[in-house]
Design a protein that fits this description.
By secondary structure, the chain is of the alpha+beta class. It has ten helices and nine strands.
Length: about 280
């Protein structure tokens, strides 16, 4: 009698990751039953795994009895090399740009067909944005996303162009032909403008961040109120901050373009974004 093919049992580590994977934006706090349902694991197994994760510090239990991601796991995740060194280098320049504008300043990297925000500075009166540090977003709608997609490998671009282009507003790019033209424009002028594509009241200007070998490793953006925004003036300021970060990361092109300022002086006295025209209040 032939032996039927059997699916091998899932390892303990796989089931632990299933439990952690149930926590997402919009589901940051879950009960034991919700974790069991979302992970597809039996309640008894879920209880045992959650207990072990909570003991280690990957999960924490709230006063209501539900669970959320623990501080220990956050500490480990913050050591990810793609964000750690980049954030440390970029943050002083982001702070300068924020001080000059008091608008949203965002830093993102590409992960597959999505982007991940690794740092964000937000002003009290700045326009509302649908982003958070550690959050993911599509590549075709935001300023940072358009930059990352424009400089991504050709196969990545074709996958995005051939997929479903989700729309958040009537102004979101929904046509592959339109997106292809926009990506060409980004590469030609060196920055991206996303006007009302995520929320109708916001405009984003994004620029590439280059590392050694001049490879684009991240993108920086300024997100402002769309009403009264001056994309050209904003682009000049964001590009200046982007060049500063790129120089610090060892970009040969950025170092050649401004050899007299290859190092940012201590004490935050070099403000690349100074003199940026403020947008009209919303």
């Amino acid at each position: 009698m032939g032996e039927e093919a059997r699916v091998p049992p899932r390892s303990l580590s796989s089931r632990l990751l299933d439990v952690l994977g149930t926590f997402q934006a919009g589901h940051a706090e879950l009960t034991l039953s919700e974790i069991s349902r979302r992970s597809g694991l039996p309640l008894s197994t879920t209880h045992r795994l959650v207990r072990d994760l909570a003991t280690w510090g990957a999960l924490e239990r709230s006063a209501s009895g539900s669970y959320h991601i623990g501080l220990h796991l956050w500490e480990i995740a913050s050591l990810a090399p793609r964000s750690l060194g980049l954030r440390e280098v970029a943050l002083p320049y982001m702070e300068d740009l924020y001080e000059a504008t008091h608008e949203n300043v965002q830093l993102a990297v590409r992960d597959g067909l999505e982007l991940v925000f690794v740092e964000r500075l937000a002003g009290r009166d700045a326009v509302r944005v649908l982003t958070r540090v550690g959050g993911r977003f599509a590549l075709h709608a935001t300023g940072v996303g358009l930059v990352l997609l424009a400089y991504a490998p050709a196969d990545v671009q074709e996958q995005v162009l051939g997929g479903s282009l989700e729309r958040w507003t009537p102004k979101t790019i929904g046509s592959p032909a339109h997106l292809r033209r926009v990506l060409a424009e980004v590469r030609q002028r060196g920055y991206a403008v996303s006007d009302g594509q995520v929320t109708m009241d916001s405009l984003s200007v994004g620029v590439p961040i280059r590392g050694t070998g001049d490879r684009v490793v991240a993108a920086l953006s300024l997100v402002v109120h769309a009403d009264g925004a001056q994309p050209g003036a904003l682009a000049a300021a964001v590009r200046a901050a982007g060049r500063g970060i790129s120089r610090a990361l060892g970009s040969p092109d950025a170092q050649r373009s401004t050899p007299h300022s290859s190092h940012r002086p201590a004490g935050h006295d070099h403000q690349d974004g100074a003199g940026v025209p403020r947008t009209a209040p919303s």
